[in-house]
Amino acid sequence: MRIDVTTILMSLSGEKPIEGLDGDIRPEPEETNVQYAERASIDLTFRKISVEILLAQEEKQTGENKLKRFVLAERIQLKNIVTFTNEDIKLLQKASEEHSNTLVHGRMVELLDPEEYKKLHVEPEDSEEKPEEKKKDWKNERTTKGKVVKP
To answer: Which domain holds residue 33?
Structure first.
């Protein structure tokens, strides 16, 4: 699968980009207003979050796994369009589960596994009454124990 890693991850509404490296910007105690403004104005791209989560420290990680994560992070950093293997996708999804918040993880899955995202992203049926139901003559119907019965 090929992904443009410069893709900007969007907010929950999809109307504006997620800002900042963690997708949840709050000022740090020692940060000046200028430093905070600079950090908050960073659009979160697939590249930025992928590199961050792949290089994040984990307690129980083998040397082989660390090397795989490093090489993948390096590939993502050096190219704008990256071809991912199934193993790469699993590695990124696992890292995203462990090191990103729910919003960022959802956007990562949307790019990494669009079929899974579509399967889970089911639009609820419209709860509004259909126009023909609104026109029913309710005077000629009565209810008996929750069931509608016509006279």
So the answer is: 2-149
